[in-house]
Amino acid sequence: MNQQIASIWHPIDIAVLVLYFAAMVGIGVAVMRKASRGLDSYFLAGKELPWYILGISNASAMWDITGTMWLVYNIFVYGMKGIWLPWLWPTFNQVFLAVYLASWIRRSNVLTGAEWMTSRFGEGRGAELSRVIVVIFALVSVVGFIAYDFQGMGKFTASFLPWNLSPNTYGILIMTVTAIYVLLGGMISVVITDVAQFVIMAICSLVIAGIAMAQVSPEQIAAVVPAGWSDVFFGWRLDLDWSATIPAITHNIANDGYSIFGLFFMAMLFKGILVSIAGPAPNYDMQRVLAAKSPKQASLMSAVVSAALLPRWWMIGGITVLAIHYLGPTFKTMTSADFEMVLPWVIREKIPAGLLGVLLAGLLASFMSTFSATLNAGGAYLVNDLYKRYIKRDAAPKHYIHVSYVAQIAILALGIFFGFQAASINQVTQWIVNGLWGGYTAPNLLKWHWWRFNGFGYFWGMVAGIAAALAVPKLFPNLSPLAGFAPIFIVSIIASILGSLLSDPEPDSVLIRFYRQVRPWGFWGPVLRKVRAEEPSFQANRNAARDAFNVGIGIAAQMTLVTIPLYMILRDWKGFWISILILAVTTVILKKTWLDKLEAA
Length: 601
Description:
By secondary structure, the chain is mainly alpha-helical.
């Protein structure tokens, strides 16, 4: 046993951790019978869960510890300007989903994003190709995320748990425990455990925020950080001078490439808007949308996600403030520093005995909720879109559930295998995760908004985008993933358009059914005329301008859910009350222009 780690543990902490793992497995056993009724029950919880529970579950799945460590780094180095950097993901895609996209997706009434291709493109060869490429994309993404979950989970737990095991052994053990309740209870157990994990993480966030506010004053923070650190807004250049307090950060800022922040922000916004309009990738986010009871509840679920992530920023702000005050002098003497040591240091040095077990359970929960949701989504694609469609179409529900067990175990094994190789494929994997969005975005944007877009266009757009995502870093090794998005997107959209125009349009029956059922806005004029020929009273969706307005208001509201907890921890009461006021005004506007106009169906 590692004596240094063991010395920080109290018997109560170990008991809390053991109890937590036992409870998570117990939930899977308890809901096993209900989950095994069929694929809808297993992968979508029978579409019976309330929207607010699904929203909290989705937020919990997004609350991963690796992302939290990255966000702590952002706020530590860039101050309040760091709140914009999550737009790289982009976090505001949840606003697009809440305003209109979630309801469009849910109206399709399918089990997975790949099955959605049939509702859009029908059953022809192009539709089949589009379905296959989405399954491939989904499985590559799932395996990649599991590989990184494995690496991160192992290294993190090896730093804290009081047993002398290797990081890889810890990773296998914790993923195995998580997989047990995912396999037994399907999405029902995933969602229930996600909610339990969310409560634990929220409590941990409040504890860390309370410790930070009790131990560090605003004056102590100001003595370390440079001028402009607490300002949310920025000019063309970043202009944060750390040379007098922590010179090593100057090197980090140069490596990050954010010095010309205005240009970086515009590129980030451009990518973020396009990615958001394209809709969610085929992963756990889309599965939560499809699991909602109705299109209206799917929209409400997506709105809850942004609100439910507010406690995460208490944790981020608290850890950052404690690190600035206590680690500032140490970092000042370093020529270079690994700022990822901030989170482990805060846990070891500033969390009182007895609370360590709760906090570690919360941080492990953030790993487990992301991993469990990813594994469940991957199983849905493998079983519903490959096995059921191409191997055995008419088996009994229990047969598919048993196959789901095997499929998820196979995905887990593959993810762990690549996790062992993660150190050597880090750069390539980062390009797959980031660059693939350039290939994914163009065809998925067109599928909503252009009637002439067909299955062949989707297939060739995805193939060209994936090929470009792999080729660009080889041809331009010094190009960042963000800068690489534009050329990848251009290649993909050209292939999408050519693939569509050089092949026949989808049958009228497919287009009419899709347009009538989903009711998207965009370039659907020829289809609208055919729908009206059958149903003269049919009304086209004329809400594009209103949706754009609501997206803008929604993003403003979402940003206040980040600034409110941070301003509170920094004791910047002016910024805090301005954020509260903006949140109140935007909430009233959205009540009238969005919530009151959500369709019930």
